[in-house]
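User: Can you model how LMY7XDAE sits in this protein?
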Amino acid sequence: MTAQKLDGAATAAAIKAELTTRVAALAARGVVPGLGTLLVGDDPGSRWYVNGKHKDCAEVGLASIREELPADATQGDIEAAVQRLNDDPTCTGYIVQLPLPRGIDQHRVLELVDPDKDADGLHPTNLGRLVLRVNDPVTSPLPCTPAGIIELLERHDVPLHGADVVVVGRGVTVGRSIGLLLTRREVNATVTLTHTGTTDLAEHTRNADVVIAAAGVPGVVTAEIVKPGAVVVDVGVSRELDAVTGKSRVVGDVHPNVWDVASWVSPNPGGVGPMTRAMLLANVVAMAERRAG
Ligand SMILES: Nc1nc2c(c(=O)[nH]1)N[C@@H](CN(C=O)c1ccc(C(=O)N[C@@H](CCC(=O)O)C(=O)O)cc1)CN2
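Assistant: Here's the modeled complex, given as structure tokens:
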């Protein structure tokens, strides 16, 4: 068996086309939503991600606002930039590109983001709303990567209702929050959250209909621990030097031999990354629509 690919790039392109129509409808009412980004420092990966977000904005017709600070910016400089974005009326929603440089209190910075402008859905108020209003209609931004994974699965008709889903990794941006989304009444999956304290990972994954690997451990999910026909989503990002080209490349958590047993695989790169970007745009458009009434 060779698994089929859950194509994040193609699905993200389809979502962006739908968003372009919604943005045009807003423009007809005189509303131009704007996405802001705050980039601190000169990490090439982070710059690449931020540039991609601005390129996406241009593609769907969103305005974009850039704040950039040098790597030696102080906590105060960063908090002042956050305040500028909070106060900027052209900025519908924004993100603080993570990680922030060492020595900066990231939690404090994120808590200063206006929850109504939190395009990443990672502000404690929005995560709290996700916990408290888990079965209400969604009216606040959802974390982009978990929302993107569910959208990717649903658009490929992967059944989630009643499915046993094992999540590998308990990080806030993916592992912890995807459990909340998957157990919402309209999705209705049963979720097991595994982590470094899990004594026997295979015991869980071997029974799973869907495995979501977000541990950041290259190749941790192998064919031997995946049920034949299961659906596997690779969210892990590790960087490795390619022995042939000498260049750095992204390596996921899913071993290539998983393609021999699974029914569907979302690869990395080419899977969840483009979906994360698409869901960020979707959050900003939804914020603008809610405000426009
Ligand atoms: N404030 C945030 N910071 C970070 C987030 C986030 O969601 N919000 N996630 C990551 C970085 N990220 C978005 O910011 C992101 C990562 C990956 C991709 C992507 O499309 N990746 C490509 C491959 C790229 C490569 O080869 O390096 C893919 O998966 O095909 C988009 C966005 C950390 N920070």
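A couple of observations from the model: The chain has two domains: 29-121, 144-274. The chain has a mean pLDDT of 96.
User: Helpful, thanks.
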